[in-house]
Every structure is written in C-alpha cells, then in structure tokens.
Amino acid sequence: MEEHYSNPPLMSTYKHLFVDHHRHRLDIGAVECDLPVIDLAGLLDDGESSAQLCRADIVRAASEWGFFQVTNHGVPQALLRELHDAQVALFRRPFQQKVTERLLDFSPESYRWGTPTATCLEQLSWSEAYHIPMTPATAGSMSRCIRAVIEEVSTAMYELAQKLAAVLTRGLGGGEAMMTREETCFLRLNRYPPCAMGGAFGLCPHTDSDFLTILHQQDTIGGFQLLKGGRWVAVKPNPSTLIVNVGDLLQAWSNDMYKSVEHRVMANATLERFSMAFFLCPSYDTLIPSHECECDDHGKYRSFTFGEYRRQIMEDVRSTGRKIGLHRFLRRSSTAL
C-alpha cells in the first residue's frame, strides 16, 4: 500500500502521469514462453564433446534469443535465498531512512526509486532499487552479515559471468576477449511495489548497456517480459534458474551476431515482486568493437569506449527522456533517429 512507511511515494509523486491513463493504456499483453534452458554441468564435464555441445547451445541461444536460462550454474540456491531475505529486510526499512541514511558503506546514490526524468507514463518505472558496485567493504552501519552475503553473491555472479563471456567471445571465431573490471560491475537489488492503477511498467522497456547480465527472479510473481519476433513474451519465473542476457556492448563487440534484446517488467496490481541482477562491465576506457572489427568493411559500429557510451546514454535520457543506445554509434547511417 502506498501509505506504508517503507514504500517510496510513487503515487503521490507521479499521479499526474495517470490522468489520461484510461485513454493511453500501455501495451501490457504478452504470450508466455519458455526460454532456452542450458545445463552448465556440460562445461565441467570431463568429456570435451559435452563441453562443446554446451558451448554451442550458449552461442546459439545468444544469437537467436539474446536470452537464455542456466542450471547447475554454481551459485548455491541457499546463498540466493539468503540474499533474498537480506534484500527484503533492506527494502522494509522506513523510506526516509533509505533516502537519507547511507547503507552499509555504499554511496548515498545507491538507493533509487521511480524515474525522476519521466514526463509520461511510458517513461515511468514503478520500482525501487539498490545499485551496489563491486567494491571492498570498509565500514557500515548495518549488519556485516548482510554486506557479506551481498559480496559473496557478487563474487559468484562475477565468476559465472566471466565464464559465459569467455564462451561467447570464443564463439565469435577468434579475437581477444573483452577485459572486464570488478570496479565497474555492479549488483542491483530490485523491488516492484504493487500498482493498483494497473498497466504500469515496473521497469520501462530497455536494453542493457553492459556486456552481459545475469538475472535471478526471486519469486513466482511474474512480470518479466522480452521482445521476440516483434511481440512481447512473458518469461515464466523459475527461481531455481538464472537468466542470462546479452548487453549492448556484446552486441557491438560481436558485430550483431549476438542480440541485446529489449525487455521490461510489468508491475503487479496487488503483489510486490523482488529480483536481483548482476551487470558485467569492462573498464571505462575499453574500446568497442575490437580493432579487427574496426578495420573490417563489414563492421557495423564505429569505435567507441564504454565510458563514451555511458555518457551518451545519460545525455540522451536528459535531453529526450529515452535511451537511444547503439544507434548513436552506427558507422554508416543517417544521424536522424
């Protein structure tokens, strides 16, 4: 409920965006789908043939879907449940504490809610989140156990993401792998409060601006959707798996062999939803695409750095209210968007 002391004041802040909601309903329809499921035990199998088949499945799913699920991923379910419990406790804190008190040793900007730049309902994300970088702990005002769980999950996710990224870059047929940096990677803890108005985005349609993302749907509420074949499809929640998706940087790095697919979250009218996502990122000065692709007449994107890409996205959001993304970095195209 909006009046609950722990909830951000989403309705009172953004109620003006719902004035014409009955005339401008968001597109909320979606058919349900099963993402490809890949058993990562094949990568650890003694037989090289099993590993080859597993790698081929990963490359195929990243090329055809841009999304896939993994089992036997090496991140203990008990640890994921422990993180979920800690996450619920963090979001149950009074709203004023969340916005005014520094959490653990994270920056004050770690806690975010709503969409400050939203000028219409289509730009509003009905959610709150903690963005937590992979930085060593120093001192914190909350339980060290919570910090330890967050760090353990981040480390496990980073190791898994690196293994998957190595498979995907190897699947490009040679070339150097992208060098990722722990200090630019981060974990995001999400909570999507109920929205009684219905039809609101918990998270607006977008593509991820990183190299690779690993998502854990921590409950069975549902609401996560992706764009497939021009239609929105709902992904069946399965807390026992992890969802992996290609980010913009990997799409550019692969010259569009892999797809960074648009996705969104729909807010539930009566139930809150929790999820966690890990974002694998390179250093800000990493050049994308590789030099080999830059010299290739068939290269689609001009050379750019991760830092340049982030700055352009922030500028576009400030000036237009939306992310434009890779279209800004096409090598041969009109600048009209």
List key phrases describing it.
single chain; 337 residues; five-stranded mixed beta sheet; 29% helix; 21% strand
Question: What features would you describe in this structure?
Answer:
This is gibberellin 2beta-dioxygenase. Residues 181-282 form the Fe2OG dioxygenase domain. One of its GO terms (cellular component) is cytoplasm. The chain has 337 residues and is α+β, with helices and mostly antiparallel strands. It has one domain (27-283): Jelly Rolls (Sandwich), CATH 2.60.120. 29% of the residues lie in helices and 21% in strands. The chain contains nine helices and 15 strands. The protein has helices spanning 10-14, 41-44, 48-64, 77-91, 95-100, 144-170, 248-253, 291-294, 306-320, and strands spanning 31-33, 37-39, 67-71, 111-113, 128-133, 186-192, 201-206, 212-217, 224-228, 231-235, 242-246, 263-266, 273-280, 287-288, 304-305. The strands form three sheets. Strands 2-3-11-8-13-6-5-4 form an eight-stranded mixed β-sheet. A five-stranded mixed β-sheet has the order 1-10-9-12-7, with no helix packed on it. A hairpin with a 2-residue loop joins strand 9 and strand 10. Helix 4 packs across helix 6 (144-170). The chain starts with 9 loop residues before the first helix and ends in a 17-residue tail after the last helix. The model has no long low-confidence stretch (mean pLDDT 86).
